[in-house]
Write a structure and sequence with these properties.
Blueprint (H helix, E strand, L loop, with lengths): L2 H4 L9 H12 L12 H9 L3
């Protein structure tokens, strides 16, 4: 899911436990939209592209 959709649910300092709780909370919302999973090839091209 896009990070912008999860951001409103953040309540505490950034750590793995807090991240997991926020993602679970956001994912439980019925109106939440998810992004498609990128293939390994697509991720590789994006990582290799100069910025």
């Amino acid at each position: 899911m896009p990070a912008a959709y999860v951001k409103p649910f953040v309540k505490q300092q950034k750590n793995d436990k807090a991240d997991a709780e926020v993602i679970a909370e956001a994912a439980s919302r019925p109106a939440m939209r998810f992004v498609a999973v990128k293939s390994a090839e697509t991720q590789g091209r994006a990582a290799a592209r100069p910025r």
